[in-house]
Design brief:
Blueprint (H helix, E strand, L loop, with lengths): L1 H33 L1 H38 L12 E4 L2 E4 L5 E3 L7 H8 L1
Antiparallel strand pairs: 1-2, 2-3
Helix pairs in contact: 1-2
Length: 119
């Protein structure tokens, strides 16, 4: 359950942050005519927030990789939760059921999703 939540967050995090920054830009543009110091404050908060967003992104990826490594060590596929369906080759773990491929460091190989829908 926790992995699926982190997986979805990691998939949509960058797009969500982009749309938040676009909305804040529109707000700052409007505030520029109403109360200019607020617009200037939003610029500085935006720069600080971008650093925080980058650190949060790295933390979520580290947590997801740790969960993937733990699930793989138990013989369980992180995506479909199937047990004992893993094959190992050249530092990769591949699920027989859903064709997901993960590296030793816990990162998913993106090409595996295309192969799952092709067959």
């Amino acid at each position: 359950m926790l992995f699926r939540m982190l997986y979805a967050l990691n998939r949509w995090y960058a797009l969500a942050v982009l749309w938040i920054y676009i909305a804040l830009f529109v707000l700052a543009f409007a505030l520029m005519f109403i109360f200019p110091p607020a617009s200037l404050a939003m610029v500085f908060l935006g720069v600080i927030g971008l650093g925080v967003a980058g650190l949060a992104f790295k933390a979520m990826h580290a947590a997801q990789s740790a969960l993937v490594r733990r699930m793989i060590s138990r013989g369980q596929c992180p995506l479909c939760s199937e047990t004992n369906q893993y094959g190992q080759r050249e530092g990769q773990f591949a699920c027989v059921r859903c064709n997901a491929v993960f590296l030793d460091n816990g990162m998913e190989v993106e090409a595996s999703r295309d192969h799952a829908f092709a067959s």
